[in-house]
Write a structure and sequence with these properties.
The complex is a heterodimer of chains A (92) and B (588). With 92 residues, chain A is an alpha+beta fold. Helices cover 36% and strands 20% of the residues of chain A. The chains are: A alpha+beta (92), B alpha/beta (588).
Chain lengths: 92, 588
């Protein structure tokens, strides 16, 4: 199991448009990735490809998240998705 | 309502015979040609307990669900690509919900024989999975609970995709079209794109239905309560005459010419000078009905001489708690700002009946139109009205608009007196009432002693005078402000106001803020009855001014007398229209 730590950069948090961008990216990787808050149990982590899960997570700007995946393509997928979280999608 | 096609085809027939005529009630004038898009009916719930149907397997059902979900995602994604702003964001997020693992995994699980209740069809599985996700979202509350409608919409779309039916909601088309529906719900009307829909036709619904109100606000030619139109085939070219209330399938050369002539005159009618005078120079101010600051800016740009009805509900709707005084001050101030030095009549909160508010009204009333609504909510929930009046007074102090305030659904002189005292306590100088309940019209000379003005809400006054629900298509003929009984109530109000004015030594004005004022022919009658201001959707200002400008006050009085004496609504309308040749010239 590989992990990446990423801090939410978008001003509106991982909501609305940033959440849609992230979910689309997660679905495109074709790898099963989970997302959760840093410090919370691994089994509470949610499916990163689910916009509903992401909305329910409701991560605000500055919150630290953990992405986890394993198997073929996991490292690349995690790198891509960590970058999406650390980009401010609300900047014009 | 007659349907004059003896050779009317049954459902599924390829085309309607040339010249087929459908007759309904015209609510917004305009003559247009266009292609029909039918509004699909509500999606039927797939039956429970059928198991996986014969010819299907667990694997094939799983695949069908995934393919249907992907198809819905692609459709919504394509629409998002052509949308902009907030609509684009909502559509993109909704598109992703269609293939959301939370939804699809739960649906696939419900296909297997091992789940509670046994195996389900693909349609039933996605239906129940959607309900489950909706329940989860609802329990999370706040922003997530607001997404419940989105997930239920996605679910309905996937079920339609599985069944090979058209998607629910307003049809999507690249090209402009004429929308035909049984009737539109408020939620549908919010989704309607006026760039794409060029006219509205409904088989049900009355002249006061949501469809009609929306059509007036958007200036879309519309015919309601036209039986049979929902059977006109998709894609057929039709002609709609929103003044005559007729729809012609397979239009001929005459209709084509009429539509071209309308397109030309519509540009002249759109213009209103900003001061409405009759042929003899009498000034009858034309005001606008608005709901938001954005409406007010548009109304001012259209030349409105003030606001005759500011619906304050916009500030309260879709909320589970009362807005703060500060929020209200800002919202009302936005409207006042658009009309510096001009009259703005604010109607206090009109909740109840078709505009329920969770913190004010009771949804369990057996008869909401006769229930605790309008001013009456003050009895059960005192405080809300006082705070609103305080907010109106604070906003008025910040702007130069001449602010008048009126209460909706006042029935007695005691209510009028109490409202006037609340206005005085808030420092609001000009209190008034709406005349919607027939008792207020009958007792106008007494009721108007307590306040400074009255404004007749013809939509509700008609529904109560005729005991006919505004929303019911079959009662459309009763629900007609041309009914001589309604005109007599308007006359009683004007006469009562004059008597109360004489007693008090100051004039008491009576205006109209119902949709009746937007009917140019009826506007002439109302002015002839002694109504001093007319308030309407901004779109109606041009046509009403054009027709009022063609008559003198003396002629208007004669026409009002003719309408009052008519034995029926149809006879009143016919007599007045026959005396106003301008209407036919302008296609109104």
């Amino acid at each position: 199991m590989s992990e990446r730590i990423a801090t939410v950069a978008s001003r509106s948090g991982l909501h609305a448009r940033p959440a849609a961008i992230f979910t689309e990216a997660a679905q495109n990787t074709g790898v099963e990735v989970t997302i959760g808050r840093k410090g919370e149990p691994e089994e509470d982590a949610m499916d990163a490809a689910s916009i509903l899960s992401l909305m329910a997570l409701g991560a605000a700007q500055g919150e630290v998240l953990v992405l986890r995946a394993e198997g073929v393509g996991a490292e690349e997928a995690l790198d891509t998705l960590a970058k999406v979280i650390e980009t401010d999608h609300d900047a014009a | 309502m007659l349907e004059t096609s003896s050779t009317f085809p049954g459902p599924g027939a390829a085309a309607t015979p040339a010249g087929s005529l459908y007759t309904g009630v015209g609510v917004v004038p305009g003559r247009v040609l266009g292609t029909v898009r039918q509004m699909p009916g509500a999606v039927q719930e797939p039956p429970a307990g059928g198991g996986i149907p014969a010819g299907e397997t667990l694997e094939s059902s799983t695949r069908r669900i995934k393919e249907a979900a992907q198809a819905v995602q692609a459709q919504l994604g394509a629409r998002a690509a052509t949308a902009s702003g907030e609509a684009k964001e909502i559509l993109s997020a909704t598109a992703l919900m269609a293939t959301d693992p939370m939804l699809l995994k739960s649906a696939v699980k419900l296909l297997s024989a091992g789940t509670e209740g046994g195996a389900r069809s693909a349609e039933r599985a996605i239906w129940e999975a959607g309900a489950g996700v909706a329940e989860t979202l609802r329990s999370l509350g706040g922003y997530m609970a607001e997404r419940v409608a989105d997930i239920l919409d996605v679910r309905a779309r996937i079920v339609c995709e599985l069944r090979g039916e058209p998607a629910p909601g307003i049809p999507y088309s690249e090209l402009p079209f004429i929308l035909i529906a049984v009737d539109l719900a408020p939620a549908d009307t919010a989704m309607l794109d006026p760039q794409k829909v060029i006219a509205l036709v409904t088989s049900s619904g009355g002249p006061q239905s949501h469809t009609a109100i929306l059509a007036r606000a958007l200036g879309l030619p519309a015919v309601v309560a036209a039986p049979g139109v929902h059977r006109i085939p998709e894609g057929q070219e039709i002609y709609v005459d929103g003044a005559a209330g007729t729809v012609v399938a397979e239009p001929g050369e005459d209709q084509r010419r009429a539509a071209e002539a309308w397109a030309l005159s519509a540009t002249t009618l759109a213009a209103f000078s900003g001061r409405n005078t009759m042929a003899d120079g009498v000034h009858v101010p034309l005001l606008a009905n608005v709901g938001t600051a954005a409406d007010a800016v548009q109304a001012a740009a259209s030349g409105a001489e003030g606001v005759g009805l500011l619906r304050t509900e916009f500030c309260f709707l879709n909320r589970d708690a009362e807005p703060t005084v500060a929020e209200q001050v800002e919202a009302y101030g936005g409207v006042f700002e658009a009309f510096p030095g001009k009259k703005v009549v604010v109607r206090t909160l009109d909740a109840g009946a078709d505009k329920p508010l969770p913190f004010l009204t009771n949804l369990d009333e057996p008869n909401p139109a006769l229930g605790v609504r309008g001013y009456r909510t003050h009895i059960g929930s005192p405080g809300v009205l006082e705070r609103q009046l305080q907010a109106i007074a604070s906003a008025a102090a910040l702007h130069s608009a001449e602010v008048w305030v009126m209460a909706p659904m006042v029935s007695t002189a005691e209510e009028a007196a109490l409202f006037a005292s609340l206005c005085a306590a808030a420092g609001l100088a000009t209190p008034g009432i709406m005349v919607e309940v027939p008792s207020a019209a009958l007792m106008a000379s007494t009721v108007l002693r307590e306040v400074d003005f009255a404004s007749i809400g013809t939509n509700d006054l008609t529904q109560y005078a005729m005991a006919a629900d505004r929303q019911l298509g079959p009662l459309a003929a009763l629900n007609d402000p041309w009914q001589p009984a309604v005109l007599r109530l308007a006359k009683l109000t004007v006469d009562g106001a004059a008597a109360a004015g004489t007693a008090a030594g100051t004039a008491k004005s009576v205006g109209i803020c119902g949709e009746a004022a937007a009917d140019p022919a009826l506007a002439v009658v109302l002015v002839g009855l002694g109504i001093s201001t007319l308030s309407m959707s901004a779109r109606a200002l041009g046509p009403v001014a054009a027709v009022l400008g063609s008559v003198t006050m003396g002629q208007a009085r004669e026409l009002a007398a003719a309408a009052l004496a008519a034995p029926s609504a149809a006879a009143a309308r016919e007599a007045v229209r026959a005396a106003l040749p301008t209407l036919a010239e302008l296609g109104l």
